[in-house]
Specification:
21% helix
């Protein structure tokens, strides 16, 4: 079964047809509990910082680890689009049509990290 997700106000919405199938199978509606599609996730936790996106942790074997993100990296851009807030990061990831390029600042130096196909 293919599920097409929609995003609005940073929440993932399932199409009505999927909710109808859940109802027909007598399964509970997951509401907002389903995670977004994997292409919209990196596998990182952001450290609290009001001015920038600092990587606080990287999930082992995640997309972020494969790209080369490390704890302490400051995410500056996704595909040449500046990101300073978590919402901008989510929007950039959801808009990406293929492998992404992440610009980070690591130990004071800007680096480009390219996702492999």
């Amino acid at each position: 079964m293919v599920i097409n997700y929609g995003v609005k106000d940073s929440k993932v919405y399932l199409p009505a047809s999927f909710r109808q199938k859940l109802e027909a199978l007598k399964l509970p509606d997951p509401g907002d509990d389903l995670p977004p599609p994997s292409k919209w996730r990196l596998g990182i936790q952001i450290s609290p910082d009001p001015e920038k996106l600092v990587v606080g942790s990287v999930v082992p074997d995640s997309r972020a680890e494969k790209i080369g993100l490390k704890v302490g990296d400051v995410i500056a851009k996704i595909d040449d689009k500046p990101v300073k807030e978590i919402e901008e990061l989510r929007e950039s990831l959801s808009a990406a049509k293929g492998p992404i390029e992440v610009v980070v600042v690591r130990e004071g130096k800007e680096m480009k990290l390219q996702e492999k196909k």
